[in-house]
Specification:
With 358 residues, the chain is an alpha+beta fold. The chain folds into 2 domains: 118 residues, 3-Layer(aba) Sandwich (Aminopeptidase), CATH 3.40.630.30; 200 residues, Gcn5-related N-acetyltransferase (GNAT) (Aminopeptidase, 3-Layer(aba) Sandwich). 25% of the residues lie in helices and 34% in strands.
Length: 358
């Protein structure tokens, strides 16, 4: 197991620690560390194993790292790996998640970030705590654009049914969802047909995976990635092909958590807005048929998808910066990368009860 020596602490007193890949035996300590940092980590063994240690054909390296003195863990960071493509350029990227350090270990977080930074050509960040977001520019991250979270109300009454806690805001949110649902355009898929794919059928969409255009930067997808994601034990994930005239033209990936469906990834082999509009409409149609779903949410950073979402009855709820840190001397992409929920753990992370974003 590869290890890195890290010295953390003040200038007067520094202590040597080891940064190493975590193992399943570290699971309870990682969960305790994240909870103490105010996060809401998953904790069941099967879920932790899938997230941190289950093998992925598209990324043979480790995905979870701890900073320890041998007997105690003082910091943790995990990654969601990927590949960024533009023109003829390709660069490996990692999105750091579950990043936390013990209160008595100053510098542990930065040491872990430096370790993770060496794993790929670039680091990408689209969300984080206020403290994290303030720290990123200091560490050399550059802002490339913004990712917007969108929500479409599907069945407002279910918001009341699944709400874990009622406050004075609950009726107001319900009324807003009703207004949004009534104002949304009718779902029309036209000549487009959707079909749910099994893990054995993932290969059928290999020819329509995202590709970089002349002025578009994408985070690549692969059939190996989808095979891994479909095995997610944290949320129910379904993959759907989008077909027209008997030909597969694109796909969308949905994740289902309590009370909510998430459009975590989508693509169609076209630059025509009408085709992208049909793709979004197909995703809305499938989400509406799912039991227990009150709303459909997604994230978009590119103009064409954002426009189609707004035209399909989605409303912007919040915006976060898309920031990247490249290797020294290496140029980053010329435009903002096309990021979606699949590019970090927002695709499947939840607190075990309904949390509505409308």
């Amino acid at each position: 197991m590869d290890e890195t020596l890290a010295r953390i602490g003040s200038r007067r007193r520094s202590v040597s620690f080891r940064i190493r890949a975590s193992t399943p035996d570290d699971g309870p300590a990682i969960v305790a560390l994240l909870r103490n940092a105010g996060l809401h980590p998953i904790w069941q063994d099967r879920e932790l194993h899938w997230k941190y240690w289950q093998e992925r054909a598209d990324w043979p390296g480790h995905r979870s790292f701890v900073l320890s003195d041998g007997s105690q863990i003082f910091g943790h960071a995990a990654i969601v790996p990927g590949t960024c493509a533009w023109g003829r350029q390709r660069a490996t990227v990692v999105h750091m998640i579950d990043w936390a350090a013990a209160a008595g270990a100053p510098g542990a977080g930065v040491a872990l970030m430096k370790h993770v930074r060496a794993l790929a050509d670039a680091m990408i960040c689209t969300e984080g705590s206020q403290d994290t977001l303030r720290l990123l520019p200091v560490l050399g991250f550059r802002r490339y654009g913004a990712a917007t979270l969108y929500v479409r109300a599907l069945h407002p009454l279910r918001c009341l049914t699944f709400s874990a806690r009622w406050t004075w805001k609950t009726p107001l949110k319900f009324l807003r969802s009703v207004v949004w649902a009534l104002a949304a355009p009718a779902v029309q898929c036209g000549d487009w047909v959707t079909r749910r794919l099994t893990p054995e059928q993932v290969q059928s969409i290999a020819a329509v995976l995202p590709s970089a255009g002349a002025n578009q930067v994408v985070l690549e997808r692969s059939t190996a990635l989808f095979t891994y994601v479909l095995d997610c034990p944290i949320a129910t994930v379904t993959l759907h092909s989008v077909e027209k005239a008997g030909h597969i033209r694109g796909y969308f990936l949905l994740a289902f958590v309590p009370g909510q469906a998430r459009l975590v990834d989508c693509w169609i082999d076209s630059s025509e807005p009408d085709d992208w509009q049909a793709l979004v409409q197909c995703a809305v149609h499938v989400a509406r048929q799912a039991p227990g779903v009150a709303e459909l949410v997604t994230v978009a950073s590119d103009p064409i998808l954002s426009s189609c979402l707004r035209q399909s009855g989605f409303h912007a709820r919040m915006e976060s910066a898309v920031q990247m840190l490249t290797r020294k001397g290496q140029d980053g992409p010329p435009e903002c990368p096309r990021v979606q929920m699949l590019d970090n753990d927002s695709a499947y992370h939840h607190h075990g009860h309904a949390q509505f974003w409308a």
